[in-house]
Write a structure and sequence with these properties.
The structure holds two protein chains of two kinds.
Chain A (H helix, E strand, L loop, with lengths): L15 H15 L10 E3 L6 E8 L5 E2 L2 E2 H14 L3 E13 L4 H18 L2 E10 L7 E11 L15 E4 L5 H10 L16 H8 L5 E6 L4 H10 L10 E5 L7 H10 L12 E5 L4 H10 L7 E7 L6 E4 L5 E3 L13
Parallel strand pairs in A: 5-6, 10-13
Antiparallel strand pairs in A: 1-2, 2-7, 3-4, 5-7, 8-11, 8-12, 9-11, 10-12, 13-14
Chain B lengths: L8 H22 L3 E5 L2 H9 L10 E5 L10 H12 L4 E4 L1 H4 L10 H4 L4 E3 L6 H7 L4 E7 L4 H13 L5 E8 L1 H12 L5 E5 H7 L15 E4 L3 H17 L4 E3 L11 H10 E4 L2 E2 L3 E2 L4 E4 L8 H4 L15 H5 L23 H4 L4 H8 L5
Parallel strand pairs in B: 1-2, 1-7, 3-4, 3-5, 5-6, 7-8, 8-9
Antiparallel strand pairs in B: 6-13, 10-13, 11-12
The chains are: A alpha+beta, B alpha/beta.
Chain lengths: 341, 368
């Protein structure tokens, strides 16, 4: 069997291969005219006001600066609901544990998940536990499913995006992924380098006040803001429309520590995972109001307009670099490879 | 400069604009099309990543040169490494990119990694320990230019002084100056100037390029990797072209010195001897490769494992050989972005993060 027919790590990186796998292998198995878009959360029946989402968490290491897998598993799933226009109500939580994983660590993870659920105002109402033999798992994996109640009446969908709309990023990008990598590589890093794991509902619900002017939202997790921008440019699946997106490199908020470590590792913070950053597309006249709403919240203090929607080069994200050059900002591709020269 | 080593954004953009103004006016005065070759793979990537092509006047062309070590290694080298791993004659150790380069049959070393025959290493310093623990000889894919070579040699000498005997280097080390001479002789007037590699030059020094000042030479600008460094390199090249000069100029003096890194040069001189191994796409270049000296023969994989000379065959339809020589651009290749993508590469120029095809694919070609 050729390598092209085997699952590779890159299929899980949130970049181009992840998307290909979903579109070519997974989505066709469940394709339905009632659900034409690839969205993070969907109504339980077409048009229903109860939304459901699910997400698996495999982060390594399970404890990292600014969070742990338990907190992530609660916030991440709640965030998928929030950016879909729903208030999270309850969660299910399934554990896959590897033989030999310390029960004390499990307790820590669960305490953290429980605190996170309290913060989010949701309950964990059911769950499941499985154990796999030593070597067959990575310590602890968690899957959470979230149920939410729609509180924003308009669809938050790429289909509502129009030329001239503006793209807003809610906070500094790249913090989560860089904090994880630094923890994994045992890089000596300062206190500034922490995961941004946070609940996005307060920010999202603020933006709900924009009404129709709020067109689309997505939390920029794996693949970073680069992946979200490319998804906006070319929504894929049943959606055949595509847009050009033009962004300014200098306008993305990035913490200096994150920038330094990303430079060191040869990574682009725009391609690195976040766990507390949303990307919103709003109509231009509502932009100032959107920023005002975001800036009030500590999580949105650094919110900025990073780009706009155009009809030029549909399907492509063009980035203006810090010296004014233009180049493509592609879906993240591949994994971190060592430099050889 | 800020603490992170960057020029503050506002100043940087202003400086960039003023250098660009110089580039535009100089290019306009020259009038004809000017071709500058960036020799180094890191430049190929950084020029595209910073969108510099989109800022240059139409008559200034940047041509990518043979400075990506993965790209210039012939397919037969990969074949030999695959054979050694498959037959269980050695544990092949390599940096990541090489594992994904298809050999002449399309097979890669990566496909053997799962069988424990291939080991990914991040730094040559891992090699002595790896060899000490391994029951099989460890065959390290020793590719690279002068930037990489000294660290590999240090690892080899460290292993030797620890009495470790089963570390073998499969050398495909390349040295850039003979390649520049070769290109100059081959392309002649088609090239107007070289943007010389900053990192390699830090080792070999500006003195290594003195031949460019001789009759038949072209301007050579030692260039750094920040956006302003690269713009400055381009401006200085254009100025020399306008004035009809061909001198070696150092636009990266904060890193590159005239005499280079003497310790590294001495280490290379003590361990290596020039050869004329094949370069992918360019063929044999006199003095363009470096092999181990006779007193290190015990560590020479070619001799110890009796490897045949690496052939240079291309996969059908792959234009890497011409892309490496600066004679073709990626979209001219029928495989580019169709059959050959970063996820499923056919040729080395798409595999390596420093390859020309990978840079085009990732950051876009001309005309943005």
């Amino acid at each position: 069997m050729s390598e092209a027919q085997l699952i590779r790590l890159e299929h899980g990186s949130g970049g181009a291969l992840s998307r290909e796998l979903v579109e070519a292998v997974i989505y066709p198995a469940f394709r339905s005219e009632a659900y034409p878009e690839l969205s993070d959360a969907s109504p339980i029946t077409p048009g229903a006001d109860i939304l459901v989402t699910t997400d698996g968490y495999v982060v390594d290491p399970p404890f990292f600066p600014g969070g742990d897998i338990g907190r992530l598993a609660v916030f991440g799933t709640c965030n998928d609901l929030a950016v879909s226009g729903a208030q999270p109500v309850c969660l299910t939580l399934a554990l896959i544990l590897e033989e030999g994983f310390p029960i004390e660590n499990l307790r820590r993870v669960l305490r953290s998940a429980s605190e996170a659920a309290r913060e989010a105002g949701v309950r964990v109402v059911t769950g499941d536990t499985k154990v796999v033999p030593r070597g067959a798992g990575g310590g602890i994996y968690i899957t959470t499913t979230g149920i939410g109640r729609r509180c924003f009446p308009h669809p938050l969908s790429p289909s509502r995006i129009r030329e001239g709309d503006l793209v807003i990023v809610s906070g500094p990008v790249g913090s989560h992924g860089i904090a994880i990598l630094a923890a994994r590589e045992s890089l000596p890093v300062g206190a500034g380098l922490r995961s941004d794991a946070a609940l996005l509902f307060p920010l999202a619900s603020g933006l709900f006040g924009l009404g129709q002017s709020l067109c689309f939202m997505r939390d920029a997790t794996r693949g970073g803001v680069a992946a979200v921008l490319n998804e906006i440019a070319a929504p894929g699946a049943g959606d055949t429309r595509s847009w050009g997106i033009e962004v300014e490199e200098e306008s993305f908020p990035i913490n200096p520590e994150v920038r330094t470590v990303a430079d060191l590792l040869g990574l682009n913070p725009l391609e690195v995972a976040n766990e507390g950053v949303l990307v919103a597309v709003v109509s231009a006249p509502a932009c100032d109001e959107a920023l005002r709403i975001l800036h009030v919240h500590p999580l949105g203090r650094d919110a900025r307009v990073v780009g706009r929607v155009t009809t030029l080069r549909p399907g492509t994200v063009v980035l203006r670099t810090r010296i004014g050059g233009r180049r493509i900002l592609d879906f993240p591709r591949g994994l971190l490879l060592p430099r050889i020269c | 400069m800020t603490a992170s080593g960057r020029t503050p954004a506002a100043t940087e953009r202003e400086l960039a604009e003023s250098i660009l103004e110089g580039i535009r006016t100089t290019a306009a005065r020259i009038g004809r099309t000017i071709s500058l070759m960036e020799v180094c793979g890191t430049h190929t990537v950084e020029l595209r990543r910073q969108g510099i092509h989109s800022l240059l006047p139409r008559n200034v062309r940047l041509v990518s040169g043979p400075g990506c070590p993965v790209c210039v290694t012939p397919a037969g080298y990969i074949d030999n490494a695959i054979t050694a791993a498959e037959k269980g004659r050695a544990l092949v150790a390599s940096f990541g990119d090489m594992l994904k380069v298809p050999g002449s049959t399309g097979a890669t070393l990566a496909s053997l990694a799962g069988r424990g025959r291939v080991k990914l290493v991040y730094s040559p310093s891992e090699l002595p320990d790896l060899a000490e623990k391994s029951t099989l000889p460890v065959l390290f894919l020793a590719i690279g230019f002068e930037t990489t070579i000294p660290t590999v040699l240090s690892a080899l000498l460290a292993a030797r002084s620890r009495g470790i005997r089963n570390l073998l280097l499969y050398t495909a080390f390349k040295t850039i100056v003979p390649a520049l001479r070769f290109l100059l002789a081959r392309t002649g007037p088609a090239l107007d100037a070289f943007l010389l590699p900053g990192h390699v030059s830090a080792i070999i020094g500006t003195q290594a390029y003195s031949f460019l000042a001789d009759a038949g030479g072209i301007p050579g600008i030692v260039t750094g990797f920040e956006p302003l460094d690269m713009l400055l390199g381009i401006l200085l090249a254009l100025r020399q072209v306008e004035e009809g000069k061909h001198e070696v100029q150092n636009a990266y003096p904060r890193v590159v010195k005239q005499q280079g890194n003497i310790k590294a040069l001495e280490l290379m001189a003590a361990c290596l001897v020039p050869g004329s191994d094949r370069w992918r796409g360019l063929g044999r270049i006199d003095g363009g490769s470096l092999g181990l000296k006779a007193d290190l023969a015990a560590f020479d994989a070619e001799q110890q494992l009796d490897l045949s000379e690496a052939s240079d065959t291309e996969l059908p339809g792959c234009l890497c050989a011409r892309v490496i020589a600066g004679e073709a651009e990626p979209p001219e290749c029928g495989l580019y972005a169709r059959r050959c993508t970063p996820e499923d590469p056919v040729g080395p120029c798409m595999v390596s993060s420093e390859g020309t095809c990978a840079a085009w694919f990732r950051y876009g070609g001309d005309g943005l």
